[in-house]
Structures are given as C-alpha cells and as structure tokens.
C-alpha cells in the first residue's frame, strides 16, 4: 500500500474520532440512545452515487433514517435485496415514510441511454430502459437532450415509487395503520437541493390496486409476510 | 504473479490503536419516539435486539388525514424538518466548500466503496467525517453479499471497474437486527432467503457460537458475517484483477453503535489462501 493510501485511511479513523467527540459534545447520551435500538421514521432508497449521501442531504442524524442504496435507485420487482429492505423497514421497523430519491447527472441513467454493452451491468440497467419504454411518447417529445435525460431521472423515481407501492408490506401496513407514505424526490448536484416530485401517493396506490392488490389475505400479514 | 506482494496488498491495516470492544450486556429499553397507542402496536419483531418502542405513551396515533396530507404535517415532523435541513445544509456546505457542488456536478471520483448495513445508526459518510463525493455506497439488510445478487454485483462492478475506487470496505455493526434474526429460528417470509448466507455462516461455526454467551455469540456472528462478505467480494474477478494490477485494498470493519467508533478487523490471508483464490476465481478476457 502506498504512503498516500495509508494516510487516507488514517485520516478517516481520525475523522471518526472527531465525529464521535462532536456528537458527544452536542448530546452526552447520543450513543447510549443509539445503543438502545433504532426507531427510524424513514426508509430512504437512493443511488449509490458518492455525491448523494442520505443523512447529509436530509440533515438527519444517525438513527433517523434506514438506508438502501443501489445503482440508480431502482426497485426491481424481483430483486430480493431491495424487497428485503422494504419488508424489514415496513413490517419490523414500522417506518412512516418511504423516500425514493434520484439525482440529476445520474451515471446509471446516462449509461442506460448509451448503446454500449456493459456486461454485468446490462440486466440491472435494463430496468431504466423499461422506464423509457413506459414513457416513450413523453420523453421523445422533449427536444433538448439534457431536459429529456433529466425527465427520465424523474420518471425513474416515479416508477421506483410505484414498485414500492406494489408490495404487500406497504399495502397492508397502509390499510391497517395509514402509513407508510411513499415520496419521490430528486437531488440536484449543482446546488445541493432536494426537489419533491409531489407523488400523489393515494392516487398511485388506488391506481396499482386494480392489478397488484395483495392486502386482502391477513394470513400473510406481518412476520410471515412476503414483499 | 507474486503471491508475497499480493499478500501485502490483501493485508488489512494495523488495528486502530483505540479499537473498542463490542458492547457487553443486554441493550437497554428503546426510547419512545412514536405516538402510538395500543390499537396501533407494531408487532414485536424477531429482529428486535431490544424491547419494542411502543411502551407507555398516551398520545393517539396519527390519523389517515394527518399522515396523508402533507400540508397538515407540523414543523416537528421529521419529513418537513428533513427538507428544511436540506436547504440549510446546501447553503452551509456551499459556504464551507465553495467549489464542491460545481465540481460534483461534473462527476464523481470516490476512493471508497462502502458496503454496509441499512441500519439507520450506521450513517457512513457522517461517521467517516467525509464529504459528498467521497464514498460510493451500497447498504442492505445485514451487509450480506449473495454471490448471484445483481444489485450488489452491479455496485461492485461499477465502483471497481468504472470508478476505480482504491478501497472496498465491508462494515458490520454491533446489535445488528439481521444477525439477531439469524441467531433465532422464527419464520420471516421473504427475509428468510435473504438471511440465508448468515445461517450458513452460523452452521459452519455452530460449535464456537454455542460455546459463547448469547450476546457475545451475536457479536461473533457479526464479525464472521463481515469476513464472509469480504470472501464474496474477493471471489469476484474484477476485484482480484484490481488488487493485482493497481493495489485495490479490501477492509473489514465493525462499527460499535454504542460508542460510534469503527474497529478494523485483521483480514490478512496466507499466501496459500490467496494463491488458491486466484487460481479458482481470476478470469481472463
């Protein structure tokens, strides 16, 4: 390992100590409370992109938001990884809000619009091409390339929200407890600001129920439940 | 190929001098945070490493209209607060680092790929004291890596091959709910197949785990799980290639939620282990 790399890692451990001290200074019992367990109100599903750190952009402390991050904030219907996260957050932690957060300048979304064979990444990114296909007319009508790409980022968030709402966990919990509510956001790297896409959760839920209704059978509720 | 040299590169860093021990004893009662009465009891989770958080609280649950209608959310609501904090954070970050956002808009060059748990207490960028643009992140339930999982597979491929990160970190943490679940035997639906690798690790180490007191056994499984995920990371040819060709480092960390401190595991492999790994997993174009 080069000296440079050793320094980088050493800096991180130093930073970690500074962060611990700062937290304790603000609240002497900060870590004692965290040691007692987590009761986050939010599940955040966002992109792995290093420029979009969940806690920082939301100004939330450790312990306040349960986080799943993958390439391009996708919620594929058969991805066991994200489905386990949704299931756990809703059925076991009882989160009040689920946020799907995309961001402009998303490399994953850009890659999905590029005619290149990216090997292992192809099947994952194909979900974004499917989003394009679902909204082909709207996207094709946008002349400006950047605007079209930004709109695809937004629509990708909308479709991920829809996939979250298709789950039995969300449908059952909402029927029994009136939460969680699903929100779609986009983060703008240029100014660091979040934009709420104002997803109409109730309307979207009503819309998907015709085909994706999974909340009738109480047998499958809670601990035995599926996604 | 120089197995000795590679061993150097596989070798983890010296232990942090102020490493901490995992918390001992049982965790305390969770703080009451939600306004829930008994009509709205969340079921006691098999994941819970603590008592449930719905104890004595006289306030009534949020009504549908309260939770559903954003305009009725008051200023103490964390969702409203989060969006408000974001404005302050963006302004403050831009003041302290005027070049950061304009630079970030042009691309990312993170040095670290972080594979950690979704647990809300494990906020990686905060605990590392780093900035936006520094850490590429995948977080899932119990920082488990399934060999065939496309989600984590795509993350590792993109981070190592395209972003060329210098470090891959797998970080587990004390009081992990996923680990607690895998130490038990309750059916959990879709979570069962997800937690399967944890149970495989449990099976392989059953004798040692059963020889320990319950809380220590859970912390031991946390560590074994990090090692297993590192194992999966270094079974990927793209990772082996980066280790050999440009000195990519892989690290195993444990985050102690009771103190906020990170501890580095010694993940040094013998030359023989590394040699076998390369023979079995390194692929040529």
Automatic annotation (TrEMBL), chain A:
Free-text comment on the cofactor: Binds 1 zinc ion per subunit.
Binding site for Zn(2+): 47, 49, 103, 106
GO biological process assignments: carbon utilization; cellular response to carbon dioxide; cellular response to oxidative stress
InterPro entries reported in the protein's UniProt record: Carbonic_anhydrase, Carbonic_anhydrase_CS, Carbonic_anhydrase_sf
Any Pfam family: Pro_CA
SMART domains: Pro_CA
Keyword Phosphoprotein: no
GO cellular component: cytoplasm
Superkingdom in the source lineage: Eukaryota
Coiled-coil stretches: 125-152
EC number: 4.2.1.1
Family: Belongs to the beta-class carbonic anhydrase family.
Protein task: Reversible hydration of carbon dioxide.
Protein name stated in the entry: Carbonic anhydrase
Source organism: Penicillium ucsense
TrEMBL record, chain B:
Gene3D superfamilies reported in the protein's UniProt record: Carbonic anhydrase
EC number per UniProt: 4.2.1.1
Cofactor(s) essential for the protein: Zn(2+)
Binding-site residues, Zn(2+): 117, 119, 173, 176
Cofactor binding annotation: Binds 1 zinc ion per subunit.
Chain intervals for the UniProt region annotation (Disordered): 55-74
Domain of life: Eukaryota
BP GO annotations: carbon utilization; cellular response to carbon dioxide; cellular response to oxidative stress
This protein's record includes keyword Cell membrane: no
GO MF term (any one): zinc ion binding
Catalysed conversion reaction: hydrogencarbonate + H(+) = CO2 + H2O
Keywords: Lyase, Metal-binding, Zinc
InterPro entries the UniProt entry points to: Carbonic_anhydrase, Carbonic_anhydrase_CS, Carbonic_anhydrase_sf
An example Gene Ontology CC term for this record: cytoplasm
Family the entry assigns: Belongs to the beta-class carbonic anhydrase family.
Role noted for this protein: Reversible hydration of carbon dioxide.
Annotated protein name in UniProt: Carbonic anhydrase
Organism of origin: Penicillium ucsense
